[in-house]
Amino acid sequence: MPRWKELPAELPSSERQLRVQLRRLKDHSGLSLAALASRTSYSRSSWERYLNGKKPVPRKAVEELAQVCGTEPTRLVVLYEVAERARTKEAAGRPDQPTREQDRGGEQDQARDGQEQEREPEREPAQSQAARRAGRTVPLKWMLGAVALAVAVSFGGGLLVAGAWDDGAPAKKGDAVAAGTGYLRGQTYACDVRRKGGELRAGHSDTNEMLLDINGTGFDVVEAQCLLREKGFSPGVFDGLYDERTKGAAKRFQGARHLVVDGIIGPDTWRELRR
Questions:
Q1: pLDDT tens, residue by residue, 81-90
Q2: Model pTM score
Q3: Topology of 175-274 in CATH?
């Protein structure tokens, strides 16, 4: 099976986690993008954009993917809702028109995809492709505008970039929450765990709900790594990469706290880490 394209560096960690799980589910099912298009309300090109992080994935698409892959959709829906809440926080203080536009855009995509599947052959002519791309100019412009705005705003409160952002100066612990400093891939971060407001904090993220799983990156992961060490289950690394060592430490911690031992850090595990 061909390798996936690397997700955009500017994609927030909550959106990245959703795409990683959707990709994993698709690969496990063995279905191609064309097969997904034939079994869902969305075209092959829409699935390509959703799974490669080029466009926000609608909730209905998440649910349909789970259905055709034969899995219970609850976990994927939770990931979708976390990403949706992150977008809502990011948009706080701005008019809610873009959100409504996004909802309508998803419905229009679905309707357009249905029409495409009815009238387009397996290999559509270049002229048809050009016409279809032209029909999506407005949604694409809106998406690019949203990405540019996301880069400009602060990623405080758990909205952290999962990529190699470099603003010209090394990241310092606490900067991610305090000033929105970007996460730097490959850097080791300090763990200065203190109790604040009744919770343990390492100064990298204040999240209590972000879902972390294998290959996730960002300051949320650094925070979890530091708290795992504080609890006596050190992963041995504090670089913001959720690798097998970090997942193993999370499993040991979950087992000791009588949690579900799946190595996925979610609200229940965060609650115990913060105690």
A1: 998 888 888 7
A2: 0.43
A3: Muramoyl-pentapeptide Carboxypeptidase; domain 1 (1.10.101)
